[in-house]
Each structure stands twice: as C-alpha cells, then as structure tokens.
Amino acid sequence: MKKHLLGFLLLAPWLAQAQAPTPYTLKGKIGKLSAPAKVYMLRDGKFSDSTALTNGAFEFKGTVEAPQQVMLVLARDGKLKQALSNFQKADRTTTFLEKGPVMLTSADSLTTAKITGSKLTTEHQQLQTTLKPANDKMKALMADYRAASEEQRKSPEFMKQLDAREEAISAESKQHYLAFVKAHPGSPVSLGAVKQVGGSVPSYAEVAPLYESLAPAVRNSPEGKKYGEMLQAIKAVSIGAVAPNFTQQTPEGKKVSLADYRGKYVLVDFWASWCGPCRQENPNVTKVYNDYKAKNFDILGVSLDNEKAREKWLKAIQDDQLTWTQVSDLKGWQNEVAVQYHVQAIPQNFLVDPTGKIVATNLRGDDLRETLAKYIK
Q: Which UniProt keywords apply (predicted)?
C-alpha cells in the first residue's frame, strides 16, 4: 500500500473568505444520551473542544476567522481515545462552523445525523455522495489488506495487485474531485478537494493550475493563502527546478554536499528508521541501486531520525544493507534539508540529473526502476 491511504484517513481544516470573526452556533440532538457521553470537536488539526450531552442535546458556540470544516466524534463513555480506537468505525461526522445556526439531529448517532443550516456542509455532502463508490472500494481494499496473512503481505505479487487496485481507486476519486472543483470554483469545499488531489506530496505541475482555477475569494482566504504559499515553496523543488544544494554529515562526521554528485544521476532519498513504509521500500531501492550503481547513478540518503534515535538509525542502515552514503542533522522532522525540500511525508525522493536539475520525484516500486531505465541507458 503506497501513498494514498493517509489522505483517505486524515481531515484537514478548510477555511473560506471572511474579513472579521464569524460567530457560529453548532447545536445537536442525539437521541436521549447524557453524561458521561461527550462530543469532541477536531478543529485546526486538534481535538481542542468538547461538550457533554444532556438528554441528547449538546452545543458549541464561538467565533472563527472564516468558515471552517470540523470533525465531530461521539464518545459514549466520554473517552475520546476509546471512541477513536477504530477510526473507520468511530461515530463521527463532519460539518462547518459558519454563520448559522447549524443543527445536527439523529435518533442514535452522529454518523446518521441530519445536518441543516449549513450551505457548506450541503456542498460537502454532495461531494461525498459522488465519492462514496470509490471510498467503499478503498475500505474493501483496506479490509483485504488487514485480513491478509503475513506471508501474503510479504508476497510481491499480492502487494502489486493491491497497489494496482489502489491506483485505480485513487484515479477514480481524483476525477470526482476535479469535477467538483470545476463546478464549484467559488466554494471553500473546492479548496479541500484541491488538497485531496495534491495529497501529502503534491505535484506542483498538477496542483498549481487546479489551485489557480479557484475563485479569488477562495484563494485569498486565510487557508487559501496558506496553501498557495505552500505551492510556491514546493515549486522550488518541483520537476524542472535546479535541486537546492545542501550539506550534512555522515554518521562518521564527514560533510557531504549534493554538489559533490554533480555529473551523475543521484536519488536524494528521505527516510527514517522509524518509518515503516520507508523500511518496506528499502529492499526495492537496494536492488535498483545494485543494478545501476556502475552506470553513473548514486543515492544520497537523508534521515529524519533525531539525536535520541541515532543508534536506531545506524542499526537500520546495517539491517537494511544501505550501502550508499547516509547523512542527517538528527533533528527529526526539523531536518534542515527536509524543511528546505518541503518534505511533509516519507518516504519521499528526488531524482537529480547530472546538471543538477530535478527530473522526477516520489519514485517507488516499479516506478523507480522504470524511470531510471528511461534516463540511464
């Protein structure tokens, strides 16, 4: 399973246009539930607010800088951790904080609640309706993966089959997102759709034109500006750009620069010892390296481990038989090169040609071998 599941599970806040704080009132009536039952609100990426139910009723009030999407989770025993122990089965829903009031009503759960008073929620639900067939296929895929034996998961053929299904489902979802953005350029929900298309590792060439198709009011909203700034940041490390130079140290303390590799193809590979998908991909990278290391090709590994995990980093290098050069400043996610290259998820890599230009990004599995075969004869 390669790169799309994270975006399927995570919820990011989507903001729209507003010049002054917008008051909101979010009311709910879920059967006759009372304390210890609580409703928790995920806002700005954090569960920062909660309220108890009294005879089924609950209420959130406050202000937002602009209309904002939030996720609500019902914890019947009042414990959020328990309510989220199985995210797919959690009693949850999404709505928007906007000039309201917004009302959620259900006889038994948040998942089945009818939401009224929110124009943005209505638009979001329209999008989710079109996405449901693809989402159901993704849930089935994830169920098949969880049900697979350890032997099956180690089978290249089995994983390749799952990857092919995942790519097809993601392509189906993308078409629905693109259609929604085209039909609703003035909706902040479309900004969220653009983010979903981009995922955790956006392609500037693909996402920038889509972002520019949004109405000025959406692009100039707080979250719209923030996303636009992010796109400008990744432009500097997108395909066709000259890879920014950097220097970091090997485990032995030797300083190594990207400029040292000028004149050959080099894969700048971001990873970490604690990153499961990275470790799963390492055998593939090792095979490719062994096949191409004598053909004007090299790899420069950049670790996002921290100082406390130094020994784990060194052990992972040895265990995974990574014989190419490894560097790090051991600052974790704050690794200066990772920040410079706007790395938001790993594994992630950048293929740099002999002139120092980035010619491909985010290469994994067969894509890595096929891309190298294209450039290195």
A: Cytochrome c-type biogenesis, Disulfide bond, Redox-active center, Signal
Predicted confidence at residue 109, as pLDDT, reads 93
Looking at the fold, whether 254 and 312 belong to one and the same domain comes out as: yes
Are 251 and 370 in the same domain?
yes
For the chain, give the secondary structure using H, E and C.
CCCCHHHHHCCCCCECCCCCCEEEEEEEEECCCCCCCEEEEEECCEEEEEEECECCEEEEEEEECCCEEEEEEEECCCCHHHHCCCHHHCCEEEEEECCCCEEEEECCCCCCCEEECCHHHHHHHHHHHHHHHHHHHHHHHHHHHHHCCHHHHCCHHHHHHHHHHHHHHHHHHHHHHHHHHHHCCCCHHHHHHHHHHHCCCCCHHHHHHHHHCCCHHHHCCHHHHHHHHHHHHHHCCCCCCECCCCEEECCCCCEEEHHHHCCCEEEEEEECCCCHHHHHHHHHHHHHHHHHCCCCEEEEEEECCEHHHHHHHHHHHHHCCCCCEEEECCEHHHCHHHHHCCCCCCCEEEEECCCCEEEEECCCCHHHHHHHHHHCC
Per the domain annotation, does 44 fall within a domain? yes
Q: Which domain holds residue 67?
A: 5-116
Q: Can you give the pTM of this predicted structure?
A: 0.76
Out of 170, 204, 235, pick the residue that ends a domain: 235
Q: So what's the pLDDT on residue 7?
A: 39
Asked if residue 139 and residue 107 are part of one domain, the reply reads no
Per-residue confidence (pLDDT) for residue 10, from 0 to 100: 37
Per-residue CA distances from 166 to 159, 171, 183, 219 (Å) = 10, 9, 26, 30
Residue 242 covered by a domain: no
What is the total count of domains within the chain?
A: 3
State the 10-residue block means of pLDDT for the chain, 377 residues long: 41 41 91 94 87 95 86 93 85 87 92 88 89 92 90 86 92 96 94 91 92 94 90 93 97 97 97 95 96 96 96 97 97 96 94 97 92 93
State both tokens at 246. Answer: 């950097």
Domain boundary among 91, 116, 141: 116
Q: Is residue 241, in this structure, part of any structural domain at all?
A: no
